[in-house]
Amino acid sequence: MEASPIRYSARPQRVRTYLALFALALVLPLLAVAFFGLNRMAAIEQAQIERRVMQIAQNLRFVVDRELDRALVTLETLATSSELRTGNLNAFHDQAVLALKPAKAAIVLIDTSYRQLVDTLKDYGADLPPTSDPATAQRVIDTGKPQISNLFRGSINGLPVFNVEVPVFDEQKRIRHVLIMSFQAAFIADVLSEVTLDPQWLTGVTDSNGIILARSQKQDDYVGKPLPPELFEQTKHGGGVYPAINIAGERVLRATVRSERAPWFVSATVPRDHAQEPYNRSLSFAVLLVTMALILGGALAYIFARLMARPLDTAILAAAAVGRGKDVQPVRTSLAEANVLIATLEKASKDLTERAQHADFLVRELAHRAKNQLAVVKGMALQTARQSATVDAFIGQFDRRIQGLAQSQDLLLRKHWRGAWMHDLIRAHLEPFGAEPRTQIGGSPVFLDTTAVQNVGFALHELATNASKYGALSTDRGRIVVAWSLLADGAVRLEWSEHDGPRAHQRREGFGHRVMTELVPRALNGSCKLDFTPQGVRWELTIPAGHIVRDPEPLQE
Amino acid sequence: MEQNKLKVLIVEDEFFIALDAEEQVRSLGHTVVGTAVSAEQAIQIAGEAQPDVVLMDIRLVGPVDGIAAALEIRSRYGIEAIFVTANTDPSTLARAESIRPVAVLQKPLTKARLAPQLARLSEK
Questions:
Q1: Contact state of A371 with B109 under an 8 Å Cβ cutoff
Q2: Do B104 and B77 touch, CB atoms closer than 8 A?
Q3: For chain B, what is the domain count?
Q4: Could you tell me the residue range of the domain that residue A365 belongs to?
Q5: Count of A–B CB contacts within 8 Å?
Q6: Domain for residue B1, yes or no?
């Protein structure tokens, strides 16, 4: 049964193309999943970084506010001191010096017209200039509440400072003085730098004018400088975490929290590159993954394609060889299917070669036999003529002999000139005499070679002719038994015996007699015995083993 | 022209052909000293009968062919052969010619073909 061929409209492709597509089909969904996963991870990591920026800003706000609280507590305690109430400013000066813990600060007492009465940076009684930050003092006087200033230059040492100021009331709850704790901006910078962070992280405090008050790094370079206007706008309005460009021109991620004590902004920043790093890492990882998957997929496709394509190429060559009528060499390849194909082609090529050789052989054999047979017929004609008294007798004899020869030829032709079965040979030669119903044929299957077929055929023909003329076939009752048996040495003994016929007697030794007793046995290199018994002729021929084909079956088609 | 009687050995496995050859040889005035059907037989009879020439069929009964048998007879007894064959296969004919026989004659054998070869031999 033949499978119906499937038609493909697409252009046929090579194995390696299909494998490359296969690799791609496998890799692409995996890559998509990997991309998605990496992206998610990067997003989570970035969110974590953003949360951390905000956390750090809030922590620092807390730390800064705590320091300011501490200053406020100190000031409020001093504001209620009896020395101040009694006006003993000299003693108050000493008290204030004692109260000062942080080194980068000074305590100043001014009256409502901003005149300095006490300054711990100077000895009591020294000549003091008016305060350089009257605005904050005025706010204290106006509100009656503690105030914290922006950055300004100190009147005595010219350093960047800020003030924490509280009102001092008299018995009538009127404001008599303003008590000021003046800090160097570096104090806040110290507080900032106390919180240990990665070197990329930066924290800072900006006052309400957008002036940098403190910075966790390079305090001296940046203190007192205004934020770029855009950054200041973002600082004032941008709640939470936002991308920005800092004063150094770096791209950063920034979080800003307002101080609860001072009119300040506490900010924490991390370079945007750093914040971006998870994405970059994911991207490089993804690129690496894609590259590796493509290289690996491509390489595997290439290797597997080679493992398949080469054997197929070999099979194609084998098929081409069959087409050219050449032999196919048995090759083992890495592809089982190709091996099957090559083995099949090899067998086909062998069969073809064998058939071609056999056809060749048959043609040559036929030519040889035709000429040989002509010679045989010529000899037969001459011998027949020699013993024929009349032309009619010759024609009758010659006709029968030619017919006998033709019977043997037919049998040989049917078996491709390899020989014939004994049984068939006997039947073929008895049939023209109508002897079959009176003949008993028996023996195990024996296959004779061509020489034996031809010669035994001649003998049988002469025996049958004889029987029909003078022997068992010349009467109605006569029977013939033809039997054969295998001898120990592989030879076959063929026996022809006539029964219930006329008594046989030796007649003139004609040519037929010579054929069966001398010529045929000699041609076969066998032996023969002829007896004339009261029952009829008894003839026995031993055919040597060399004329018996042992295994004729594979030769039969 | 003085003509010697030649002693001829016929090697042929088809007895009708062998008989025909025998008669042709005899009618040409020569003697047939034997008929063999196989190479083995041919070599044996050649040794016993010492013919002057062997009429040799190439395809014989048995494993050895006429060409090999002719070579063997020549080397053993110095007797030459005339091949008589139905073979038209060029490689076989070339092989037969290569041993330089008296002649290679095609079957069927006729007196016209055989006579000059035997005459040539008998004149020697």
A1: no
A2: no
A3: 1
A4: 326-384
A5: 79
A6: no
Do A523 and B14 count as a contact with CB atoms less than 8 A apart? Answer: yes
Reference A492, options A537, A531, A455, A443; nearest CA is: A443
Query: How high is the pLDDT of residue A100?
Result: 81
In this prediction, residue A1 carries a pLDDT of 44
pLDDT digits (tens, 9 = 90+) for A164-187: 999 988 878 888 888 888 888 888
- Which pair of structure tokens corresponds to residue A445? 């299957």
Number of folded domains in chain A? 3
Give me the domain span that covers residue B22: 7-119
Within a domain: residue A302? Answer: no
**pLDDT > 70 in chain B, percent:** 98
Q: Name the DSSP class of B4.
A: P
* Cβ–Cβ contact A522 with B under 8 A: yes
* B14–A contact, CB cutoff 8 A: yes
Cα distance between residue A525 and residue A519, in whole Å:
10
Digit-coded pLDDT (tens) for A469-520: 889 999 888 999 999 999 999 999 999 999 988 887 776 678 889 999 999 9
Are A369 and B86 a contacting pair at CB < 8 A?
yes
Segment A126-158, tens digit of pLDDT = 777 777 788 888 888 889 899 999 988 877 677
Note whether residue B102 is domain-resident.
Answer: yes
Q: How far is CA A522 from the centre of its chain?
A: 76
Residue-wise pLDDT for A313-339, tens only, equals 888 888 888 888 787 788 888 888 888
Cross-chain CB nearest to A375 (options B23, B59, B86): B86
Residue A367: Cβ within 10 Å count:
14
Residues of B in contact with A459 (CB under 8 A): none
Q: Report residue A557's pLDDT band, with 50, 70 and 90 as the boundaries.
A: very low
Q: Which of A340, A296, A301 is nearest to A14 (CA)?
A: A301
Chain A CB contacts of B105 under 8 Å are none
**B59 interfacial to chain A (CB closer than 8 Å):** yes
Per residue in A107-132, pLDDT (tens digit) is 888 888 888 888 888 877 777 777 77
State whether residue B89 sits within 8 Å of chain A by CB: yes
**CA B62/CA B40 separation, integer angstroms:** 8
